[in-house]
Each structure stands twice: as C-alpha cells, then as structure tokens.
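Researcher: Next entry in the queue.
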Amino acid sequence: RQADVAERLGKEVDRIDYEWGEAVKPGDVREALETGEYDAVGMVMNETSTGVRNPVEEIGELLGDYPETYFVVDAISCLGGDYVDIEAHNIDCIFTSTQKAFAMPPGLAVCTVSDAAYERELETDSASWYGGFQRCLDYYDRKGQTHSTPAIPLMLAYREQMKHMLEEGHEARDRRHREMAEYARGWAREHFDTFPEEGYESQTVTCVENTRDIDVAATVEAVSEEYDMVFSSGYGRLSEASFRIGHMGEHTVESIRALTDAIEDVAGL
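Model: Structure for this entry, 269 residues:
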C-alpha cells in the first residue's frame, strides 16, 4: 500500500517483491541503496496475511550508512505488541492505528516523525491536508489544537489506554506478547505447521499452515457459534491453506490457550 500511495502521488517507486511467507532480506535492500537513487525506504514491519515479521532493526541499521534516505515503517499490526527502538534503528516515520495491538476501536492513526523527516517536509508543499506533518504541528504550535475536528471519544479512550500500557511497562508488555506468540507457534507446529519463513514469525499473529486440510471456514464458524471465540481464515488465496490466530492487545496466554482448545475440539484434533 505504501508503494501504491506513493505512485498515486506521482512518485517513482521500485518494489522488492517476495513470495508469500518470505521476509524482506537486508542484503536486497542494501543492493538497491548502493545505487544512490532513493529518497526513502518504506516497508511493513508485521504482515498479518502471512504472519511474517520483517527485520526492521537490521534494515534500519544499514540505513545508518545512508543518512539522506528516510526510513518509513508501517507497524499497524504490531506497534504496542512488539517493541522496536525507533531512534536506535534510524526509523524516520513509524505509524500504526488503534484497532490492533493498542486494543481499541478503529479510528485514530498514530505516528512518530524524526526531526530530519520533519525538516524535509518543510521544504516541500504537502499534497495532503490531513496527513501533512507541517500543517498538523503548525496548528498545534499556534493554536494548541488539531487542524481538523478530532474524534474526541477515541482520543479520551486513547489517553486511558496509554496510561494502562505505561503502567504495564513496555518490557512486560513485550514479554507477554512474546509468550503468547511462542505458545501459538508451539501449538501450530504440534498440530499443523507455521506458514512464515522460519525465524521471521510475527509476535502479534500466528499464521498456521493447514497441513491437515481441515475445513477452515467451517471451523471458524463453529468455534464462533459454539465457543463465542474468533480466529480468522487465511487471507486471499490462502483462505483454506492457512488460518490465523491473533495474540495482541490485552490477550494472555490463557485466552489464546482457550481458543486453541476450542479449535482442537471442533476440528477433532
């Protein structure tokens, strides 16, 4: 989507494509950067359709050798459930939304912007009224308010959730998500297999390869009706070849175990 948006804005974009389930390779990114042709590198940190967690830390480190190239990271499905040190890994802009690991309703976008990226935008005329950092910060500095009408109930909910997340602490929250992921992957490998390339598995969603050829759609529906629990079939062409278990937000190992017990019962594992 980053590539699509950039192209719609008239930017020249080169894509590094991989097969579903494969992670981005830092060597491929370095090879492209060595041409000296790029203003920015954009990537997805966590891919929910395949359960891949890309190595943003390694790519961020190599971008330290290219200070004029900005690093933009889509962390929509993991930020708040998978810790990344933004400054240490040279991330100029990382963005997420509230409906994933923040465990809130959808409706707010959240991002951080480096000083360097902000200074770059000051030199350009942003095509976006709502998305331009310059316009947002200008309104805030001059008037102490947002430049468009905010979703106030969501902002109040966001404030309360941030209090809760800070009370838990990022190390404890990261550890809880890691433990959920380890449990889900262990269960998947015991009964099926995991879909992503080994070593690049997501910390917030496990994509299970349907090696037993169960009826995924029927199992999803039965678990929902009989246990009032939800998991998802695979995405697109993987709809019956895989299924996905989310373990993010306020879930615990116990709640994920309850879900896998329900899947086992319904699927007769």
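Model: The radius of gyration is 20 Å.
Researcher: Noted, moving on.
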